[in-house]
Amino acid sequence: MKAVILAAGKGTRMRELTAELPKPMLRVHGKPILEHIVEGLKAAGIHEFCIITGWCADVVESYFGDGSKWGVHIQYARQIVQDGTGKAPELAKAFIGASPFVLTYGDILVKPETYARMIHRYNEGHFSGVVTVIGSEDVTKGGLFFFNEKFELAHLVEKPSPKQLEELSAQGWLKSGETAWYNAGIYIFRPSLFEFTAKLEKSPRDEYELTDAISALIKTHHPLAGLKIEGRWVDVRDPEVLATLEQQQN
Predict the structure, then answer these.
(1) Is the pLDDT of residue 11 over 60?
(2) Which residues are registered as beta bridge partners of 31?
(3) What is the count of structural domains for the chain?
(4) H helix runs in 65-151, sequence order
(5) Whole-model pTM above 0.85?
């Protein structure tokens, strides 16, 4: 198992905090968000990393170097054009080779044991990957994932509109009183993912969307196991979230 971390974006919602730093290098409890992620993945037994850099790439690359300080091996690929999450993993294609890999964004913090639970779930069957989710009663927050009785991904809708939410209820995907499952942005994939990212077309947001590739996977009967994240899950999206994290215990 290898790991690919997407750390190319500027993080404009962080305003002046990312004027000279990529968002994954902002510090939480004295060390960069990205370092927490690397250490958590290493604790799960992963030692081969590819970090996708972009904005202020030198800051990331000079800090982590070859990874030897952390007892891992790190290489880098630069995303020159910020054209969405669907194409970014392709930059690590040669690094991945034939290996399954964890794919995570460089600004999502979870408890370190989450990564080990993901690998365990992946090994429970012959899956093409694992998608992680968080549960909520609010159905308006982001990408909705729907699962079958084995908790394998059956359907997804990226940021549904009010009309789409009505349709999902009418079709039986959304049921009143049941937990809605949101995409938590941490995955395991086989290299077969690239068969589908290669065919992506830009979304209405003028970006290549990873979730479009995931939709194509499940439509062609590639089984994707679901895993609910236990405990901490934080999308470090703005200065307010960062400030709250600083006030919390590790």
Answers:
(1) no
(2) 28
(3) 1
(4) 93-96, 113-122
(5) yes
